[in-house]
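Thought: the user wants the 3D structure for the chain below. I'll pass the sequence to the structure tool as-is, report back what it returns, then summarize two notable features.
Action: structure_tool
Action Input:
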Amino acid sequence: MADSAETAKKTVETAANTVKASAEKAQATFQANAEQAQAAGARAFREVADKSTAGLAELNVQGKQNLEALVASAAAAQKGVEALSAQSVAFTKKSWEDGVAAAQSMSQARSIQELLELQTTWAKTATETYLAEVTRATEVMTASVKDSFKPINERVTASVEKFQAAR
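Observation:
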């Protein structure tokens, strides 16, 4: 019986040692797996953070370019307004001077017939001058609008191309 007890004791010790070794091995494996998972998580987080940072940097660049396009557009619009304003002032001044000259000429007319001829000539000239001025103003306005929208259109085109390339 002593042998049986001794055998049982050795069997229990062997089993205990096997369980202990298995537990230590399992703990070491678990710890290694946990470290690998942590490292993989840290890499994934770093990649996401890097992509987010790159995305924000690109967004900042896009925002800056959009703002520059708006400034360029506003500058072009301002230039167009200045050109139209200068043209309008010049036309108004010339129109006034032509009207005063026509009035002086008409006041010196010797007959109704001569007055009507002077008035008709002045009205025809004034109308032609006005229509020519409207045509010039339309051309300046069209060019101004085109120049004003050009920077914005370029930014929209660039953005659309960038989004399509990203797809």
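Final Answer: Structure generated. The helical segments are 2-107, 112-166. The chain has two helices and no strands.
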